[in-house]
Amino acid sequence: MNMRFGPARGLTGRLTPPADKSISHRAGLLGAMSAEPVHVTNYLEAADTRSTLEAVRALGALVEDNDGEIVIRGTGLREAREPDGPIDVGNAGTLLRLLPGWLAAQLGRSFTLDGDESIRRRPVDRVALPLRAMGARLEAREGRFAPLTVHGQRLMAADHDLDVASAQVKSCVLMAALTADGTTTVAEPSRSRDHTERMLLRAGVDIAREGNVVTAVNVDELGLESVAVPADPSSAAFFVAAGVLVRGSQLLLADVGVNWTRTGFLRIVRRMRGIVLGDLEQESEELAAEEPTSDLDVAHGALEGTVVTPEEVPPAIDELPLVALLGCFAEGETVVTGAQELRVKESDRIAGVVNGLRGLGAEIEATEDGFVVSGTGTLRGGTIDSLGDHRLAMMGAVAGLASQEGVEVIGMDAAAISYPGFIDDLRALGAF
Ligand code: S3P
Predict the structure, then answer these.
(1) Which end of the chain is more exposed for a tag (fewer CB within 10 A), N or C?
(2) Pocket lining: 318 vs ligand 1, CB cutoff 6 Å
(3) Atom number of ligand 1 nearest to Cα 166
(4) Closest CA to 195 of 20, 418, 63, 46
(5) pTM for this structure?
């Protein structure tokens, strides 16, 4: 589906963005790994997180949907059922990377994970390698792509030193740590999102963080009980960008998750002099258990270019396309470095953003690990291809609202991967 977004006169009003995708995936998986029922409120209704519920059902968990609350009756940590055929992860990279951490310990059972065309291009060796160091047996196509087959083994704890800060890899290892004999540690070069750690802490796991090293000890069972999923800061980010860029905008985004490891984009926007007010979590030494939320007030205003450093990348990873878009409207140069991970997302997001925005009139160059934008204060408009990537589709829509001539987005339906109500929400705020 293609869709055109014309210049908007200003977005105003209040919106609660959809539920957090990362936290929903984790609630689905840890719910299935629990022996006692887990109640999840505000689980995300979108293609990616539906794939997680389908996957855990195939593994023997029961999922009841009670109007706004789901109840997951899991199999327990060590009793996942071997499904009849491959598990379809759809487009969900997080599911593809986290699930093997659980399945690797299911003694005597084998599981194959597969998904759509885009998932088959996303590397899984990054989880296979650390899992093998714990005794896991896995086979991937060409050694690094789905379909991925996992043969359950007895796991041993290990010390991992990750070369990229990836919450997916860290979380996979932590899932395996729950059943591995001993104490597992995971060190990452800088802090990636820590939803798994927080949820495990609430589930009674002996887990802690010191600097960038997480330590977890195996358990007999999880005691999670319930999860309340906040609104997704990555979905809210499209409205933050639209609010800042479109003249006359004044928005209130309600109940947004403000976990420090997810609010890198908001810190970057503020540094660019964008107006975003809210009670953001501060960086802390200790691992927190809860997921804090805040309302965010956003208003239109002039922007200045900025330099995003490699340490700032993980807490803003999914919002970096929007940093490029803001950079087009800012005064001066906006530079993103240390973001080579963008090349292995739902699409090559460096190429997708640079080619896409250039086609709309932006002055933007790709680098190996990011991009450089020369702000011109405006964007002409034109046509942009989502490449089937939900975040590029929604970035294109916001670009259209802020542009001079409007933007046609090719493949707008990709938004449903994380945000099926995106168009309706834009309309409700007066974007068209
Ligand atoms: C996610 C982690 C990030 C992010 C993805 C979701 C998660 O990936 O890009 O959209 O839920 O753990 P990496 O941690 O691999 O960068």
Answers:
(1) N
(2) yes
(3) 14
(4) 20
(5) 0.98
